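Deviation from plan, reported transparently: heme C complex.
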Amino acid sequence: MNFKTARIMAVNLFLILALPLLISAQESQHQPDPTWQAPAEEAAKTNPLPDKTEAAAGGRKLFLRDCANCHGQDAHGTEDTEAPDLHLPAVQKQSDGALFWKISNGNVKRGMPAFSRTPEASRWQIVSYLRTLKAGSDSTNSEQPESRKPESQKNDPKK
Ligand code: HEC
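Because the crystal trials were delayed, the predicted structure below was used instead.
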């Protein structure tokens, strides 16, 4: 192998190794607490509410009442409470059961209260609402003023 091929290979190797890091850097503002994980049987629970659209509408009202003061009106998180953006893939990739468990139990030492006294059906309504925030189906995004968007989304023609 001559010097030129070796150099090309080194550059390729660098790109292959660096790409996942560059992609994950976008998400680095929030890492879910690894010690705060729903037990497997809780994470496997499915949302029992039959009409998810109706549930999400009710869930949005509950969210505005109980959650928005920390997570923001549009669930993009607030810096002063360190409540994360709930649109993030790190949150959305968790199962309905896992989100339900986190809402029910909280992570009090890190600032997330437990909502065990909120009726179960209301908690599932909130889960339905959180599901509407998945990238691409976010109706609240259009109302989002440019100044409140995360830095990575500002003036980026690719997005
Ligand atoms: C007093 C502020 C506060 C309120 C009120 C609050 N949260 Fe949170 N929430 C937090 C903080 C802080 C975290 C991050 C906890 C951590 O670092 O593990 C969090 C984490 C979460 C997570 C987990 C994100 C992850 O990393 O997996 C979910 C889901 C969530 N909150 C939903 C809600 C919902 C739904 C409500 C309303 C029913 C709510 N929160 C109300 C502060 C709050």
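Residues 3-25 form the longest helix (23 residues). We consider this an acceptable substitute for the interim report.
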